[in-house]
Amino acid sequence: MSGPVLRALPGADQPLGAHCEAGGINVAVYSSTASRIDVCLFTGVDAAPSATIALPGRSGHVHHGFLPGLVAGQLYGLKAHGTFAPEAGLLHDPQRLLVDPYARAIAWPSEAPPVLAGGPEPTLLERCNAAMAPKCVALADDFDWGDDRPPRRPWSETLIYELHVKGMTQLHPGVPPRLRGSYMGLATTPVIEHLRSLGVTAVELLPVHEIFDEPHLQQRGRVNYWGYSTLGFFAPSARYAHDRRPGAAVHEFKAMVKALHAAGIEVLLDVVYNHSCEGGANGPMLSLRGLDNRSYYLLDPDDPRRTIDFTGCGNTLNLRHPQTLQLVLDSLRYWVTEMHVDGFRFDLAPALSRRGAEVERASAFLAALHQDPVLRGVKLIAEPWDTGPGGYQLGGFPPPWREWNDRYRDGVRRFWRGDPGQLGELAYRLSGSSDLFQRPGRGPHTSINYVTCHDGFTLRDLVSYTRKRNEANGEGNRDGRDDELAAHWGVEGPSDDPDIAATRARMVRNFAATLAVSLGVPMLCAGDELGRSQGGNNNAYCQDNRVSWIDWAAADAETLAFFRHALRLRQAAVLRRGHFFTGAGLPGSRLRDLCWLRPEGGELRPEDWSTGKALGMLLGGDAIGDAIGPGATLHGESFLVLINGSAKPLHFALPPVASAWARLIDTRVAETVALPLNAGQTHYEMAPRSLVVLWITAAT
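Structure (tokenized):
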């Protein structure tokens, strides 16, 4: 902690941030517009500065200095001197304590009042706000990783589980109470064993970069539970550490990663580099805005008071500026090299490639990642849309990027809801979305397939509600998607009627089984396998309570068992293939990789795609012979998926193959054991709105 600093030495301009060295700490801060940068030292999170030292060195736009006598654990903050002229985009206020953009840990005052927006645009403070502002923590890299190695699971084997660190474990009875809701809670044996029982190979954590709750939420006594409001791009959020001492979150996060890696599970981070927590012109000034507003943000060239907003959150980071791009790349490399994470999901990814109203498909950001020796080897997932013009870019990212596929989500939902004319759309989604991704260097694993995610209804609510119930958010039920493609059966909301409950349970199984048999990379939303409900809230971003937390005591054991059973199908090689089906025979061969079948027998006709509500998908991975003729044979690992989207039972003709069938799944029931069909059985009796998976067991 703070010791005597007689004077600051010039120090070094790299690396940026505060770094512990022999005899002291080196601090380097970028600002092209500040005339001077001060470092304030603190003896406690609630204290006023014990010392304020001007950084004596400057190399280009980097202010730097070496502070002798300081050690790891030192609390500090920054102050920027210079011009305060909002009309010119300059916001330097020497009374305001700022967070170092490269801080690797951030500590929060225990009882500080919220830092609120003060008016239509920033104003100078009348007195120093240091005592109530967040503090940075200088840390040493002293974690013992032992023999930790990245699992490096291939995309063909990947099953992603999207979760919230706190919500996953806050109510878990098998997690020690002191660890619930924390990084270490996620690393406990009961949680890891649950993930492994589902076949999960990667957890995707909702944002864990240090979070600042927006003023409008603070005023309503809420928090940004999902975390899409980043203050520090290097710091794991202290709110998820069970040890609340400054900097403890870093050690705990690393221990969590190490435990998950030991279980063969990768750690992916949902990262928010498109905007920050500082909002628009009337937002709080906490870090980037006060250091170098004109470099870090896209500003309106006609009125630099205003930020350009392609994110819906008040601002957009300017990744066309070299320093902002460096900040993002340095952050990503830090999380890979120092924190050992395995990949990233980029929130509103097109915003990272913006040139004004245009999204550049060959942007500096994409090029930089492609050539980076550290980052090009990790998993990269795009949310391929933002809120600006031309922002919908599904299918537009280059290899090796993968993309969240909302066309999969919506197509599968529309089909099972009973919308007409959806058969062709469903077939594309089942077979890997070749209409979106069939380009050089891309294949079925480009598509991240999901039915639900954190943003929207849970799977249970999807089949129980047709309208959102977001009144608890305090926004008059105006927030959240009004057009979410949901459909309920029977009464709206919870029901004790056994028939309604059975129908809803079958629909949940339909979605789970559809995801299991679709080519691509499946993603589950945490708790769907347990029957989790949010009471119809489809935008629970500010609900840090039982609305969002997984209620393990109320888990639906039957649904969980079915999820586990259905997801075992992902071990089949035909569902992990890296190239698209062609549906055609190979030259000089009768082998086929895919057939689409009619319930009446034979292959689907052109008119069936627009009018039908049922199909069979016979897939064998380049190994289906003449699959529909008398005495035909199936080669290798072959599955027949029968799907009935109509409200009536269906008499589905089975291909007359010289093989025996076994039923692996029939969503009319929750059974999880294989059942051989009768020898010579020619049809399968399907329930309304149901899915069946049959497997070729042996030649008869």
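Residues 121 and 281 are 5 Å apart (CA to CA). The chain has 15 helices and 33 strands.
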